[in-house]
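Budget justification aside, the reviewers requested a transparent look at the raw inputs and outputs of the sequence design task funded under Objective 1. We therefore reproduce one unedited record. The lines immediately below are the structure tokens for a 251-residue chain.
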């Protein structure tokens, strides 16, 4: 039985003051014990969030990390080992904003994924198609290639301690959500692709859905057999809304 997970990606939002408010709001939430809850603040505020959430079972992750596991001469980057030292336990790899705006490709992401795991971080691999790709009928091909890149380079064993987030690019921050059926179709294909390599690993890996998830649509999405929770962007900046999404996962 997979434990559901709800993770909040705060993206490049926040100030020390607004982060303090969000921490306070999260501390006030009643969170279901059966759901793993995590937040991904901007790195600058990771320590503030880790300290502020002490005693509350909310994990803290980073939105990005370096291709090299250990500290060294790599200006502007933060190594997975430094994230672990700060108290982070997870890291996003390949969010579509980084794939599209920062030009991060599969080869670079393979290195980031491996470096993160080498330091004990759990990578959350984000995959998803653009609207153009969906309309061209290429959704499963695109997602399959993004996933396959990690399998080919690192082996199926890399998914024993990893999470995959299916995030259709057209649904991120747009208010458009994939229907539960559309999301389930892709999640089932991801699990089937993993199962070709190892059925047990495929059954154990958590597959999150991301793309305009709100309290109002969360329960229906999380009710699908291969959807094991959500990666939440905009709605995670509101503690009450995020708490309600976590509780929807708990039901
Ligand atoms: C995201 O950025 O990962 C995301 C899913 O954003 P939103 O929930 O705002 O669509």
């Amino acid at each position: 039985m997979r434990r559901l997970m709800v993770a909040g990606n705060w993206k490049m939002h926040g100030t020390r003051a607004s982060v303090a408010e969000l921490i306070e709001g999260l501390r006030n939430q009643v969170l279901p014990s059966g759901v793993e809850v995590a937040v991904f603040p901007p790195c600058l505020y990771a320590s503030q969030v880790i300290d502020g959430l002490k005693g509350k079972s909310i994990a803290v992750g980073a939105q990005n990390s370096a291709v090299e596991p250990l500290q060294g001469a790599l200006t502007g980057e933060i190594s997975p080992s430094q994230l672990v030292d700060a108290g982070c336990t997870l890291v996003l790899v390949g969010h579509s904003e980084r794939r599209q705006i920062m030009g991060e490709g599969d080869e670079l992401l393979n290195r980031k994924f491996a470096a993160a795991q080498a330091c004990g971080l759990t990578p959350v691999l984000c995959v998803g198609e653009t609207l153009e790709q969906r309309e061209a009928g290429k959704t499963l091909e695109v997602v399959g290639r993004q996933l396959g890149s990690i399998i080919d380079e690192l082996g199926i064993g890399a998914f024993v301690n990893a999470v995959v987030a299916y995030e259709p690019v057209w649904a991120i921050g747009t208010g458009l959500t994939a229907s539960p059926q559309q999301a389930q179709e892709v999640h089932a294909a991801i699990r089937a692709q993993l199962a070709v390599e190892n059925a047990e690993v495929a059954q154990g890996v958590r597959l999150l859905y991301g793309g305009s998830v709100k309290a109002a649509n969360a329960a229906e999405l999380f009710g699908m057999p291969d959807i094991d929770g959500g990666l939440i962007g905009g709605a995670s900046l509101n503690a009450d809304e995020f708490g309600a999404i976590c509780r929807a996962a708990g039901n």
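The chain has eleven helices and eight strands. The beta strands are 5-9, 36-40, 58-62, 90-93, 122-127, 163-166, 206-210, 229-232. Computational costs for records of this kind are itemized in the attached budget.
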